[in-house]
Structure formats: structure tokens, C-alpha cells
Amino acid sequence: xxxxxxxxxxxxQPNMRQRNSSMEGPDGSQLFEDTSGxxxxxxxxxxxxxxxxxxxxFAGQSLxxxxxxxxxxxxxxxxxxxxxxxxxxxxxxxxxxxxLKYYFAVDxxxxxxxxxxxVFPYMHNNWExxxxxxxxxxxxxxxxxxxxxxxxMSFITYVLVAGVALGTQNRFSPELLGVxxxxxxxxxxxxxxAVLLSLYLVTVNTDLTTIDLLAFSGYKYVGMxxxxxxxxxxxxxxxxxxxxxxxxxxxxxxxxxxxxxLLSEAAAEGKLVRGTRNQLRMYLTMSIAAAxxxxxxxxxxxxxx
Amino acid sequence: MAFTLYSLIQAAxxxxxxxxxxxxxxxxxxxxxxxxxxxxxxxDEPGVKVxxxxxxxxxxxxxxxxxxxxxxxxxxxxxxxx
Lengths: 305, 82
Hints:
Helix content of chain B: 55-70%
Distance between the termini of chain B: 21 Å
Pfam families (chain B): Yos1
Transmembrane segments (chain B): 62-81
Subcellular location (chain B): Membrane
Oligomer: heterodimer
Number of strands of chain B: 0
Protein name (chain B): Immediate early response 3-interacting protein 1
Low-confidence stretches of chain A: 1-28, 42-46
Structural class of chain B: mainly alpha
Shape of chain B: elongated
Largest sheet of chain A: 2 strands, antiparallel
Radius of gyration of chain B: 16 Å
Low-confidence stretches of chain B: none
Number of helices of chain B: 3
Helix content of chain A: 55-70%
InterPro entries (chain B): Yos1 (IPR013880)
Number of helices of chain A: 13
């Protein structure tokens, strides 16, 4: 009820209707508690000012037809649009917005199939990302393409499930949600930086972008959520079992996805190619894949007691 | 386990400082990591060690001046706010 007074003058009639209804039931049958300081006194203050906003509303309409204020409004709106343009241009330099849009072009079928792949990747045969004239196809059309929708959603869900898990152990407080979120975010950033550093050191010529790596590192949150929910519902043995299953699944998923991107053509098809570079690349793929279960366990074991 | 973004920034500053302090002729050449030892063969076989040496050298070159500013800011903030 407090913010009725601050609404714009264009909606005078519904405002006054609301104020009337709130004042007509002061003897107990109000829908919401009026928590604004001294109740009845401020309401009578509103009653006196009821006629005044009406007059101000009429005066405001004549104010708008004044040519000076027309000019002022036009200037203000052009300034606002200039500011918006500048912000958009500068923001686009740091965060490539148009590239980000590609990663969120998903639909329900894709999300369903991808979640199924993350939990059971053993039956899938064709892991290649299909291209369309040299640009990768949007995730909506290709289940192998990386996206950022699932990692973002599962990160937020992980923070919420962690809150629930802490709540069942009477360890919850609202600051802990922020602590969990920033912890997980820091680990994610460190993992992406470590992968980037190792990719640089091994001089792999790949078309994996940073956002791709962020997406692949974010896929493990799905397994973590499954493990946490199983642990909350059925106890510790269920937590360990489901975590084991999801760890194995993420391991296989990561290896099969990264194999095509990091290794050379021949090695990716399964033939044993000798040479230190291919060995290094193979070790790199294995270590990236092995880091996922470690992180999955590290970020969830303290939530299940 | 309670990591914050601030601790990540602190760790990053410390690591970059550590890399920037490695002296070229007093230390790196002595252990065989100097720039004169990094001119290997041509072709696409740089190897991990050469890449690492190049990384150290470029971090030192790029981050010398910004590190002065960042360290000063950090020192002032730590003195004021503990």
C-alpha cells in the first residue's frame, strides 16, 4: 500500500479505487496488513490529498501539451537512446552478446535428449557436431552441440538443492547460499582457466572456444544434482551409488566429446597413432575427463552427512 | 571450502606476482629456461617446455606495469581495511 503514492499520475483512477477499498475495511477485514508506520493517520492524510492528485493529474495533462516540455521530453528520450547505444556497444566489446545467443538457442527436445545423454551416454554413436557452411549448427538442431542453458540452469539448481540439503541438517542460513554459489563459481572458473592453460601448453589447434569449455565444465552439475537429490531422498548409500553412476557417465561423455575436438583425425577414430604429441593430447583429454568426477565429489560430499 | 571471488582475485594477483619476479639472467638462464634457449627447431613441434618459457616471458613483459598499479592498490586497501 505504500507504493500507491509513488505511482505515476497517468493511472489516477485505479489508484483512487485501491485507496478507497483499503480504507473501507479498516475495522479488521483487510486483505493485507498495512505495515506503513502510523496506519490511520496516514490514511486520513491520503484522504485529504485525494482531490489534490486529481488536480495535479489535470495540470499534468496540460503540462504535457506545453511545447517546452515536449522539447524536453524529446531531448531526454534521445539522450536515453544514445546512452543505451553506447552501453550496448561497449558491452559487446567485452562480452560477445551475439555469440552468447547461439548457446541459448535451445528447445525442449534438445534439453531432454541432452540430459538423457549426460546420464546415459553409452548408446549414442555419432558424437560429431554438424556444421552448416563452416559455422556450427545451433543446438536446437544438433544434440551434440554445446549449449549454455543446461549448465546455467543446473548451476542455479545445484545452489538451491545445496540450500535444501543444508536445511535438512539445520545448518542453513541465507548467507550460505551465496557462499555455496561463489565457491562453485570459483571452482568452475579455476577449472576453465586450468583447461585453457593446458590447451595452450600442448599447442592443440582446436576450435574450442572459452564458452565451449565453460559449457562442458558446466555439464557436471547435472550429475551432482542427481546425486544430491538421491542422497536427500534415500540416504547416503543412494548418494554414493548415484554419484558413482553419474561420475562414470560424465567421464565417458567428456571423453567422447573432447576426443573429436582435441585429437587428430586418425587418433579420434580409434587407431593407435604413435608420437609424443598424440600421447600428450590423449593424456590431456583423459585428465580433463578425470577432473570432472573429482570436482563432482568435492563439491557435494560436505552436503550429505 | 568457502571460496569467494575475492580470494580468487587474491590468488591470481599472487601467482602473477610470482611469475613476474623470476629474473631473466640471474635465475632462468641458470636453470636452462632463458629466452636464448627457446629457439628450437621450426615446424609445429614447440613442446611443452618451450611453450612454458614463452608464457613466462610474455607474462613478465605484459604484466610488469599493470602489476605496479594493482599491487599499490592492493597494499593501500589492505592497510586501510585489513
